[in-house]
Amino acid sequence: MAKEESPTKSPAKAELVKLGQQVVTDIDKGRNPKIELSVRGLSNVQFDTKSKTLILGEKTAQRFFFNVAHSKKFLQTIEVAAICKSLLDVAKHASLRDVFYMAKRTIPGTKVNLVDDQKESDKAIEDLELITNFPREQLHVNANKMGSVAGKVIIEDSGDTIDWSKLGSGGWSIPSNVEDITFKKVNAEYVIYMEKAAVWERLHEDRFWEKHNCIIMSSQGQTTRGIRRLLQRLSKEHKLPIFVLADGDVWGWYIYSVIKYGSITLAHMAEEMAIPTVKFLGVTCDDIVNYDLKKHFIKLTEQDLSRMKQMQQYEWFAKNKDWQRQFKMMKEFGAKVEIQALSARGITFISDKYLPEKIKKKEWLD
């Protein structure tokens, strides 16, 4: 198992110390203390056609302490940097919520809180990822566990040997940080990731992973960074195909897009998370026709239509005829379907027929 680095030798800690020293140097030389970091946002995100992932551009911005528009964010970033350094000093981890409460207090001599909302401390952590070039997990800040996995896999985690095939009905709970996990044995032909925990529970109860020699993984809606990184490790280190199973709507398709190409907000981490080889297994508009799901239609909302128009224009979708056909079909339907609509064909229909047939016939989208 990969050993956690000594707090005194942590490269992430060295970058935090470097940030502090730069601020001190500015003060000593009578300069306005500043922080320089890459611009986050659509204006500085590009689609790299070679790697087929989203990447951050070269635009940078400076944040000055003696600037009314910058000062609060400047202080938030420095404070959260100090919190992260203290965590690394004692080799302890904190949750995003912990960091918020550790930073939340009134600035001495004022009635102004350093942070009023967790979004502010979360943004400061994202700033530090850009400044230090280390993900938050290596700054010892973790998110909540929000995923499950099962399959014929044995791992070692924090000195414990864990068999993903022998963890009862709940499976293994995927942590925020999966970097130090060692794969001891991986016996699988592919991985199916699904957005809905209820679908994972169906497949797990049906022992789909055992019957079809695969790994099944889920979240509870949003795909966490730990899940995306675990999927990428299984793809890169063990050459396993990754399939995404989601609702037949633009939101399910967007989940696939984020896993495959990366996200705009985390473009700076695409190298550690994006999986350009991932395939979309379903639900597709063709499935709606082939499996007679029109009776389970849910009318598209204005928000759905607006999101669809936006996604159609993404470079990676705009040049893909198969995906443009899907967008066109859904717009013609004027409706979407949830993956659970397949249960109308029988409670085990998804395990016994839908997934095995689609995988055998290679009916997926790239």
What order do the helices and strands come in, and which of them pair?
Layout: H1 11-28, E1 34-38, E2 45-48, E3 53-56, E4 60-64, H2 71-89, E5 94-95, H3 96-103, H4 118-132, E6 141-142, E7 147-150, E8 153-157, E9 160-163, E10 172-173, E11 182-186, E12 191-194, H5 197-205, H6 208-211, E13 215-219, H7 225-238, E14 242-245, H8 250-261, H9 270-273, E15 279-282, H10 285-290, E16 298-299, H11 302-312, H12 315-318, H13 321-333, E17 335-336, H14 349-361
Parallel strand pairs: 5-6, 12-13, 12-14, 14-15
Antiparallel strand pairs: 1-4, 2-3, 7-10, 7-13, 8-9, 8-11, 16-17
Helix pairs in contact: 1-2, 2-4, 3-4
What can you tell me about this protein's structure?
The chain is α/β, with parallel strands linked by helices. It has two domains: about 5-30 and about 65-140, Arc Repressor Mutant, subunit A (Orthogonal Bundle); about 145-360, Dna Topoisomerase Vi A Subunit, Chain: A, domain 2 (3-Layer(aba) Sandwich), CATH 3.40.1360. The protein has helices spanning about 10-30, 70-90, 95-105, 120-130, 195-205, 210, 225-240, 250-260, 270-275, 285-290, 300-310, 315-320, 320-335, 350-360, and strands spanning about 35-40, 45-50, 55, 60-65, 95, 140, 145-150, 155, 160-165, 170-175, 180-185, 190-195, 215-220, 240-245, 280, 300, 335. It has a six-stranded mixed sheet with strand order 10-7-13-12-14-15, sandwiched between helices. A three-stranded antiparallel sheet has the order 9-8-11, with no helix packed on it. The chain is globular. About 35% of the residues are buried.
